[in-house]
Structures are given as C-alpha cells and as structure tokens.
Design goal:
The chain is built from 12 helices and 12 strands. The protein is an alpha+beta fold and 320 residues long. Helix 5 runs antiparallel to helix 6. This is AraC family transcriptional regulator.
C-alpha cells in the first residue's frame, strides 16, 4: 500500500493538531509538541512492503518541536519492532536507550519501540525516513542489537549510505513496483540493516570476546547453506576449542546449534514467502540453507513458527 497524507488539505490553524493526531494513531504512537505551531506543515508518504514499512516525512516548523514516546504510550501500543531513523535534512537531538545523539543530515539511528525516547527538532525544513522492521525479522539476538540501539550510525558512506539510498528510492519509486517486488525490497532493507549493525558491533566491540563473537556471526551468516557447518568447523576456523565456542555463546544466552538453526530457518521462511520462488520445491529451499532431511526441516520449522512450510508458501501465493 502506498499512502500520502498532507497537512495542506486542512486549514492552517488545524494543521499541527491534524499531524499530531496522525502520529498518535501510529502502531507505535508518539506525542508531538510545538509552542507556536502557526505555519507548520507536513507531508507523510507511507510504503508498505509486507511486514516492513517505509515512511518519508517532510516538515516545515517555525519553532522547535518535541517528540516523545513515553511508557504510557508504549503500554498503549507496542508493535515489537525496530524503527530505523534516516535523517536526510535538518538537525535535532535524540535521547534513547541511555544515549543522547545529535541528528544531522546523513545520521542514522535505530529505535526500539519497546523503549521510551525523547527528541527535539530545530526550526526549519526537515526530511527524514523511518523504516519499521518487526523484531523477529532481524536474526541478530535482541541483546546484541540492544548494544547499538540509540547509537549514532553513519549514513554517508559504506553500508549506511547504501541503506539510505535504497530506503530513499523505495519511497521515490513506489508506484513502479509490482506487488511481488515487496518481499524482495523488504528483504534487501533487512539485509542491509543487519550488515550495518554487524559492522557497527564489530567496530565498537568492548572486549576481544565481543569482537570474536561478531566475527563468528559473520562467518556463520556466510555459510548457512553449508550442511557441514557445525560447532567443530566454526571453532576450527577461528582457532579456538569447541568448549570455548560454546562458552562464548552461552555467555550471551545462546547455543551454537540454536543460533545456526534460527538463522537457517529465517532464510527458509524468507524464501518460502517469496512469490518469485513459488515454483521451487520446499525440500529444495530447505537444502539451499543447510537442511538435508526434509521431514526434520518441516518439524523444526513448525516448532519455530507454529505453522508448516507449505502454509507459508500458500500465504505468499494467495496474497500476490
């Protein structure tokens, strides 16, 4: 779905109140305040890509505006998601997850909808994007992601710049996409965000053990389709014992086998939900991601998602 909301459609004296009501009715509601809102205007464009949503917001504010999501609003509605903020124009500050950052053009930051935040935007013209991604779509462990929630991320170079460009073009060219493209676009945004977070986590690792864990995560990610991937091969590739490997994961509330299995299942689920892969047999998709026993895969998949692989495949073909 591609929807556009513009305050130009309402009288000037009612525009800020109209905008405030819109953001208050979001799935992760926020409250917005402005001391003198006369002259305020906003344009919001929303593009739904299945479970992932991209929103482009352009505002003109004569005075500093405040935006907050407090515990009461979280209790009112929490979609259990992450929201990537892509700041394209304008300046502001944001306090979230115990961090305070400055928002300048090119700044990215990740919000957790289950945590409160408070932000301020300077007067003038602002442009930003919001990419909302359900928590369970990011295969990185929640406690790992929490390490970078609210941090200032670079959207001007490298992976951050590529993620910014894809998000911008997703909105700009929304009318040109076929429904079947939604799955691929959402997967691309999730993959780029995962790559950006992994890069940031490795760069800011607080200990050699953290840095090793992030290198192992990247190693596993690149070899999910290899049936031989195991604690033994992972440990050998990083010149540590399997006992040390298990201890490294256990310290983070994980198991090696469980982590590999969850990452493989995530990839299988994506492929099964992709209408462009509707002709590929379920067992072939399972084998592509390292599951060599079709019956075992079906049982494991159902235990994780509460539904069968074929049911997920059926949903993808009936909704496109």
């Amino acid at each position: 779905m591609n929807a556009v909301i513009c305050t130009d459609d309402v009288p000037d004296t009612e525009r800020f109140a109209y905008f405030r009501e819109i953001v208050f009715r979001e799935s992760s509601p926020m409250d917005v305040a402005c001391a003198r809102p006369a002259g305020f205007s906003a344009r919001l464009r929303r593009v739904d890509l299945g479970p992932v949503t991209v929103m482009a917001l352009a505002t003109r504010t004569p005075e500093c505006c405040e935006v907050r999501r407090d515990p009461a609003l979280i209790r009112r509605s929490d979609p259990d998601a992450y929201r990537l903020v892509v700041n394209l124009r304008g300046h502001g500050t944001l306090v979230h997850n115990g961090r305070q950052i400055s928002l300048a053009p090119g700044t990215l930051t990740l919000l957790d909808t289950s945590l409160p935040f408070h932000g301020e935007r300077s007067p003038g013209v602002d442009r930003c994007l919001f990419v909302r991604i359900p928590r369970d779509l990011l295969p990185l462990p929640a406690r790992t992601i929490r390490q970078v929630v609210g941090a200032e991320l670079d959207g001007r170079s490298g992976v951050g710049a590529l993620l910014t460009d894809v998000a911008v073009r997703t909105v700009q060219d929304a009318e040109h996409y076929r429904p079947a493209c939604a799955h691929r676009l959402s997967a691309a945004l999730v993959d780029l965000l995962e790559a950006l977070l992994a890069q940031e986590l490795e760069a800011t690792a607080s200990s050699p053990q953290d840095a090793l864990f992030h290198r192992i995560e990247a190693f596993v990610h690149d070899r999910l389709g290899d049936p031989a991937l195991s604690p033994g091969t992972i440990a050998a590739a990083h010149h540590i014992s399997t006992r040390s490997l298990h201890a490294l994961f256990r310290a983070r509330g994980l198991t090696v086998a469980g982590h590999v299995r969850a990452r493989r299942l995530d990839r299988c689920h994506r492929d099964l939900a992709d209408p462009l892969l509707a002709g590929r047999p379920v067992h072939a998709i399972a084998a592509r991601w390292g599951f060599t026993d079709a019956a075992h895969f079906s049982r494991t998949f159902k235990a994780a998602y509460g539904t069968s692989p074929r049911a997920v495949r059926g949903e993808s073909t009936t909704t496109h």
